[in-house]
Amino acid sequence: MKTLFRSPSTLSARKTVADVLAGFSRVIDDLQTVQRQNEQQATEAQARIERAKVDLDRANGEITAAGIAIDNITNLIGGDPKEKFALIAAE
Prior knowledge:
There is one protein chain. This protein is mainly α. It is built from three helices and no strands. The longest helix is centred in the middle third of the chain and has 70 residues. Keywords: Coiled coil.
């Protein structure tokens, strides 16, 4: 029985199995590396999204303020705002 486990074909089969297992180990390591990179990219993307939301909120606030300013100017000069701005634009 001992000779069976030491025969060239058995040793070759063991080496093949060891090589396959080592290959699987490298694939698993590569997949884990890719997963970590994907998680990092997702975190960075989420941070960019949050910054964009803040920028959007700020822009919306500025648009609202501009609208209020236009309303105030319109109230000061009186009349239909579209007509007044058309006159101003024509000048």
